[in-house]
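fyi for ur records
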Amino acid sequence: MKKSGILNRHLAGALAGLGHGDGVLICDVGMPIPPGSRVVDLAFRAGVPSFAEVLDGLLDELVVEGATAAEETAGANPEAARLLTARLPGLELVSHERLKALTSSARLVVRTGEARPYANVLLRCGVFF
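which gave:
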């Protein structure tokens, strides 16, 4: 058994299959899931696991070359906005409607247990070399 890193076998396998430029949507329980994306639903109960926990775990595992979030996050969920700007320098902000449109290209969706609005981010995978 693996003793560190991501233990969820579905998530670990999905991450291993990602390539340069692939999109990963980390989302709260209210975000619409784009059809055709691989979904790893980690939601256990409201707030578990938190958006912050999932984001930090994935940032430990992925090389990220870009990220996009909704500009409405700052007003509706200041905690998520602070977290995203602190963890993702160069974060691109777009309207929530635009973010939802962009998620249609996400190859992987990781659903958290977060039950506060606008705890969503679309990551673009980079390469480690």
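The two ends are 28 Å apart (CA to CA). thats all i got for now
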